[in-house]
């Protein structure tokens, strides 16, 4: 769909420079999705993995984040191979709706209620990031916290349009459950993509 150099705005690598590769196509279709233009895979041009890797390398960053849409609906081995040959670290942002392909330095698993994650994804995650849209989402988060490895970083993130309502609840929840941390979409505060 698009690729661009920016600042990672969420999760463990928040605040770091990163080259983003947003792949078209998504069958998860969260009602609060902020990139609904990504949903139809046929609306976006095909670009070679070599072209993408060269642009990412030219940015000067060491981190390349593959996101979507839902990137795991694609076979990602060729893309991660090209990025790694270019000397870049490969980071994946996924709902986990499909099995993960490719070789990844960091996997951010962000499960969504709209399409249940594939059972193989939780154990591969370096980071679990659950978007909190409603108070029932805390139990949803705990369901996946029980599935990830013990060293996996745990984040709760308020859905942007509900932040005023949900952030106070997140603060109280994290105070009572300190193994969790709060992730905010700081790129939105800074008005950057």
Give the class from helix and strand content and strand pairing.
alpha/beta
The proportion of residues forming helix, as a percent range, comes to: 10-25%
Q: Helical element count?
A: 5
CATH superfamily: Aldolase class I
CATH architecture: Alpha-Beta Barrel
Amino-to-carboxy terminus distance? 14 Å
For this entry, what is the oligomeric state of its chains?
Answer: single chain
Strand order of the largest sheet: 1-2-3-4-5-6-7-8
**Strand elements, count:** 8
Strand content bin: 15-25%
How would you sum up this structure, described in words?
With 193 residues, the protein is α/β, with parallel strands linked by helices. It has a single domain (2-189), classed as Aldolase class I (TIM Barrel, Alpha-Beta Barrel). The chain is built from five helices and eight strands. It has helices at residues 49-59, 77-85, 137-145, 163-176, 186-189, and strands spanning 2-7, 17-22, 63-67, 89-94, 106-109, 127-132, 153-158, 180-182. The protein has an eight-stranded mixed β-sheet.
Task: Write a brief structural summary.
The chain has 193 residues and is α/β, with parallel strands linked by helices. It has helices spanning 49-59, 77-85, 137-145, 163-176, 186-189, and strands at 2-7, 17-22, 63-67, 89-94, 106-109, 127-132, 153-158, 180-182. It has a single domain (2-189), classed as Alpha-Beta Barrel (TIM Barrel).
């Amino acid at each position: 769909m698009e690729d661009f150099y920016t600042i990672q705005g969420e999760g463990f690598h928040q605040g770091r420079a990163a080259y983003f590769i947003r792949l078209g196509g998504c069958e998860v279709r969260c009602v609060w999705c902020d990139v609904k233009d990504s949903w139809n895979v046929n609306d976006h041009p095909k670009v070679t993995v070599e072209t993408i890797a060269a642009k990412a390398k030219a940015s000067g960053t060491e981190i390349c984040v593959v996101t979507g849409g839902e990137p795991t609906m694609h076979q990602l081995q060729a893309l991660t191979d090209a990025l790694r040959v270019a000397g870049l670290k490969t980071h994946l942002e996924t709902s986990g709706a499909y099995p993960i392909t490719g070789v990844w330095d960091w996997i951010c698993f962000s499960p969504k209620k709209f399409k249940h994650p594939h059972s193989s994804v939780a154990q591969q995650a370096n980071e679990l990031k659950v978007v909190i849209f409603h108070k029932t989402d805390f139990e949803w988060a705990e369901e996946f916290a029980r599935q990830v490895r013990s060293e996996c970083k745990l984040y709760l993130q308020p859905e942007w349009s509900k932040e005023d309502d949900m952030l106070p609840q997140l603060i109280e929840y994290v105070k009572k459950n300190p193994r969790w941390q709060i992730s905010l979409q700081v790129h939105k505060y800074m008005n950057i993509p």
